[in-house]
């Protein structure tokens, strides 16, 4: 039976777990307690898109066609396994998009697929301690011409524009991948690329694609481990407190127009 690649997270040592403590210590605790509120529609769209692309590239690995589901079948299987109120909105657009993606980029023979949906790990020295940090990548490839290793991060986007590329320069998730990639591959490291997909809901509009390199901040890459240590220190500081006594960062973004905190109801009413 062919496999469904069911995407996971980077775990409790990954960027999205520790950064919550910097944004809001109570949010960090909620994340660790696996408390969840409703899923935003764009998150569900991203899950479907990532699953489809994961299977497209996994099938290009050795024996991949015999191991993994076809991309469209995988998206359908994921939607059945993970019911969502957003299914009717995004399932069909994603299914329409994937053949366009494959036709646009072709077979991409200049790239060898090295891994799909895998986790990389490094350790950050903090005094006598070695703090673990993990980062999950969407796709790792080797350019057959340059022999450099690249990581591609799939991004659903509203537009494939320079200002959107710039907005990821300080993404902690991507900075972590860049930092690990440099350490692991040295001169063979080719950097992170943003694999953009603009996914229209309107069936009369075609999707758009782009794959620009990530323009990382040199200072942020250099100081990244300092941020990791700071996040761990916050988690350690509030470790013994009950969740509702952990400080919360109360601000307009909790219920903001640019994205509501998924834990807002827990802070609003208390309890689980």
Radius of gyration: 20 Å
Q: Describe the biggest sheet? A: 5 strands, mixed
Q: Report the top-level CATH class.
A: Alpha Beta
> What's the N-to-C terminus distance?
39 Å
How would you describe the overall organization of this protein?
By secondary structure, the protein is of the alpha+beta class. The protein has a single domain, classed as Lambda Exonuclease, Chain A. The chain is built from eleven helices and five strands, in the order H-H-H-H-H-H-E-E-E-H-H-E-E-H-H-H. The chain has a five-stranded mixed β-sheet with strand order 1-2-3-4-5. Helix 1 (15-23) packs across helix 10. It starts with 14 loop residues before the first helix and ends with a helix. The relative contact order is 0.16.
Labels describing this entry:
272 residues, alpha+beta, Lambda Exonuclease, Chain A, five-stranded mixed sheet, 11 helices, 5 strands, 19% strand, globular
